[in-house]
């Protein structure tokens, strides 16, 4: 296959079960960003330049960018498979954190309080995160796939930003109340929720040139341009 050949428009059903060069790498990147953002970054509130936000906002939006790339390049069905892989990876990370925290510390080891402070709320955070991520990512992928058909594959920026507005909106609306109401003040929850939603959308706008570059590169290398015409958009399956 000529790496520089123009991608061929095909229906998503035509590539069911097919092999792609870079799909597994994008999946791995998606899962790594998702797990680290939720386990490491979600529990900390930071203030920078007078703006208060969840620290995970610096990296978590990359999962939505990668989700956009997955849907745009490989279609909804393969994006759905990756979303479920990310779901499983996040649940495993939560179990691992819980087991490590509850294990009795060795005599003389003084790091237990640090571990409990960092990961003591991980079950609530991960529970909220998994629900919010699951709903938000599927909304994001669905909106992008539908918009791609409506725009005939043109104006990539409109569907990456538009899908993020809806997907991140659902994600933030679910995650912050479930994770932090009763831990933070209601005012702080609302402030961080709205601020982070705005920042996530802004991140998508800022990263649009990167998205264009990655999408263009992958379409040329994979040689196809997948449209989800006739796709079953149920989230409750993993087959492609």
Please outline what is shown here:
The chain has helices at about 25-40, 60-75, 75-100, 110-120, 120-150, 155-180, 185-205, 210-220; strands at about 10, 45-50, 50-55, 225.
Descriptive overview:
With 240 residues, the protein is mainly alpha-helical. Helices cover 66% and strands 7% of the residues. It has one domain. The protein is built from eight helices and four strands; from the N terminus they run βαββαααααααβ. It has a two-stranded parallel ribbon. The protein is globular.
Write the layout of secondary structure elements.
Elements: E1 8-11, H1 23-41, E2 45-48, E3 51-54, H2 61-74, H3 76-102, H4 112-119, H5 122-150, H6 156-180, H7 186-206, H8 208-222, E4 224-227
Parallel strand pairs: 1-4
Antiparallel strand pairs: 2-3
Helix pairs in contact: 1-2, 1-3, 2-3, 2-5, 2-7, 2-8, 3-5, 5-6, 6-7
Indicate the structural class: mainly alpha
Distance between the termini: 23 Å
Q: How do the strands line up in the largest sheet? A: 1-4
Largest sheet: 2 strands, parallel
Keywords:
two-stranded antiparallel sheet; two-stranded parallel sheet; mainly alpha; 240 residues; 8 helices
């Amino acid at each position: 296959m000529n790496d520089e050949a123009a991608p061929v428009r095909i229906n998503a059903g035509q590539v069911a079960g097919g092999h792609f060069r870079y799909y597994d790498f994008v999946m791995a990147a998606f899962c790594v960003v998702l797990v680290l953002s939720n386990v490491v970054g979600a529990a900390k509130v930071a203030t920078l330049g007078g703006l208060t936000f969840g620290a995970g906002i610096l990296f978590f939006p990359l999962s939505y960018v990668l989700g956009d790339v997955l849907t745009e390049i490989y279609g909804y069905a393969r994006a759905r498979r990756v979303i479920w892989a990310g779901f499983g990876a996040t649940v495993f990370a939560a179990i691992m954190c819980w087991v490590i925290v509850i294990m009795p510390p060795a005599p003389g080891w003084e790091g237990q309080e640090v571990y409990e402070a960092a990961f003591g709320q991980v079950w609530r955070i991960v529970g909220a995160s998994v629900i919010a991520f699951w709903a938000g990512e599927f909304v994001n992928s669905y909106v992008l796939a539908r918009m791609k058909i409506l725009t005939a594959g043109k104006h990539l920026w409109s569907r990456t930003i538009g899908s993020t507005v809806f997907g991140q909106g659902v994600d933030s609306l679910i995650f912050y109340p479930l994770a932090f109401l009763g831990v933070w003040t209601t005012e702080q929850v609302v402030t961080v929720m709205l601020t982070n939603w705005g920042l996530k959308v802004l991140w998508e706008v800022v990263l649009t040139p990167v998205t264009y570059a990655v999408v263009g590169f992958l379409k040329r290398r994979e040689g196809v341009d997948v449209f989800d015409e006739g796709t079953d958009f149920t989230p409750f399956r993993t087959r492609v």
